[in-house]
Amino acid sequence: MLLNPFCPLSGARVVALKAAVVVLLSLLIKSRLQIKAFSALGVTLLLLQTLLVLAVGGALAFGVGGATFYARQQRF
Fold this sequence. Notes:
By secondary structure, this protein is mainly α. It contains one helix and no strands.
């Protein structure tokens, strides 16, 4: 790179610009990794919540069916 005598700080500006680009690229990569990680965490929590709702619903249905069966047995 040729030095410009009319702009003595051009080398420092170029180095600062390169450093800023490296910092911004590292922040971009970090944010993309965080999005992927929290997306995976969200999917896992959603799956856990769905399984929990299905388990509670099944337990309630089994409980109601059992109570109905018991009530019918007591009536006869």
